[in-house]
Design goal:
The protein is of the alpha+beta class and 103 residues long. The protein is 29% helix and 18% strand. It has one domain. The radius of gyration is 14 Å and the shape is globular.
């Protein structure tokens, strides 16, 4: 699904960054931007925030997004408490696309 969307975006001259497969990284559970030693999330978070558009892909398992996808959504909860001088979350002015695929 991500490849299909990437092809459509590329056709519109949108630059595509790397695909990050979260299951290949040690993103700790939690709701903070940094959950301590060994947490891969801070680096992944930087890449997400550097992008203008986030394509969030997940398989659907028994009618729900994967547990890995849910973990990342929980980690993004930290955005609610992180604001700039104008009270805006780090994700302000960003666009997200959900790409769900059934297995």
């Amino acid at each position: 699904m991500i490849a299909v969307l990437a092809k459509a975006f590329t056709a519109k001259d949108v630059e595509i960054a790397e695909t990050i497969r979260i299951a290949d990284h040690n993103a700790h559970p939690g709701v903070l931007s940094d959950e301590g030693a060994g947490d891969a999330w801070p680096g992944i978070r930087e890449k997400i925030l550097a992008a203008d558009i986030l394509i969030f892909g997940t398989p659907i398992w028994m009618g729900q997004a994967s547990s890995v996808a849910k973990r990342i959504l929980e980690r993004m909860d930290a955005f609610l408490d992180e604001t700039d001088d104008n009270g805006r979350m780090p994700s302000y002015s960003k666009v997200a696309v959900a790409a769900n695929g059934a297995r």
